[in-house]
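Hi, here's the filled form for the chain we discussed.

Project: internal
Contact: R.S.
Residues: 87
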Amino acid sequence: MARQKIEREKIPWFPTIDYEKCEGCQECFKFCKNGVYIWDDEKKRPVVKNPYNCIVLCSTCAGLCEQEAIKFPDLNEIRKLMKKLGG
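And the returned structure, exactly as it came back:
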C-alpha cells in the first residue's frame, strides 16, 4: 500500500519554549533555517513564529538547548497520528 501525503497542518509537530528555562542563547534561532523561530529583540528571546515550517520529527533545536527549554509533542503519539492519517 502506497503512503499518502499528509497535509503539514494536520501534524502538530513543532517546538514550544519554556521561557522560565530559556536564557536567550539563540542556538535554536541560529540553527533552524526553516524560519520556525524569530528573534524578539525587545525580550531577548526566540519566538515560535512559523510552527508549521518545522520539519516533522526533527527536534535538533531541542537537543542544542542546554537549558532544556524546548519541548516537542510525544514522538509515539505523532507517529500513531501519522499512521492513522495514512502517512
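Let me know if anything looks off before we file it.
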